[in-house]
């Protein structure tokens, strides 16, 4: 996001773990209609924490959008369905982007199990 400083992107309250894992993000279009509106993105995490994560993607995301996240830890065969809000977004060049997500304790998510992983 233009004008976004590194300091404003570095405000996560929990300790981060550098961890690169596959993540799928489901994006639903605002339009009603066909199944073509749904997009499933394959991305990767750059770091994770109890309350958020940073991902790398080749798809532009909208700040403040709330998205479904499926994180697949290939090491240990763990999967987490989480809900996250895009808190910041920046282009890194060559069609690549970084985005910061704040995780939300949604009713259908694995947020409580995710938090326990950091206890």
Describe this structure in words.
With 119 residues, the chain is mainly beta. The chain has a single domain (17-117), classed as Thrombin, subunit H (Beta Barrel). Helix content is 9%, strand content 50%. The chain has a six-stranded antiparallel beta barrel. Strand 3 (38-48) and strand 4 (52-57) form a beta hairpin. The longest helix has 7 residues, at 111-117. The radius of gyration is 14 Å and the shape is globular. The protein starts with 5 loop residues before the first helix and ends with a helix.
Summary?
The protein is mainly β and 119 residues long.
Distance linking N and C termini: 33 Å
Average pLDDT over all residues? 81
Structural class, judged by helices and strands? mainly beta
Task: Return the CATH class.
Answer: Mainly Beta
- CATH architecture assignment: Beta Barrel
Question: How do the strands and helices of this protein lay out in sequence?
Answer:
Blueprint (H helix, E strand, L loop, with lengths): L5 H4 L7 E2 L3 E7 L9 E11 L3 E6 L8 E8 L4 E16 L2 E9 L6 H7 L2
Antiparallel strand pairs: 1-3, 2-3, 2-5, 3-4, 4-7, 5-6, 6-7
What attributes does this structure have?
Thrombin, subunit H, 50% strand, mainly beta, globular, six-stranded antiparallel barrel
């Amino acid at each position: 996001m233009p004008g976004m400083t590194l300091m404003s992107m570095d405000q996560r309250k929990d300790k981060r773990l550098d961890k690169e894992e596959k993540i799928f993000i489901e994006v639903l279009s605002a339009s009603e209609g066909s199944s073509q509106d749904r997009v499933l993105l394959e991305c990767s995490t750059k770091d994770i924490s109890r309350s958020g994560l940073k991902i790398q993607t080749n798809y532009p995301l909208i700040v403040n959008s709330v998205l479904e996240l499926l994180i697949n830890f290939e090491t240990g065969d763990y999967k987490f369905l989480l809900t996250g809000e895009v808190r910041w977004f920046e282009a890194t060049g060559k069609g690549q982007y970084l985005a910061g997500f704040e995780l939300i304790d949604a009713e259908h998510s694995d947020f409580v199990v995710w938090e326990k992983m950091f206890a």
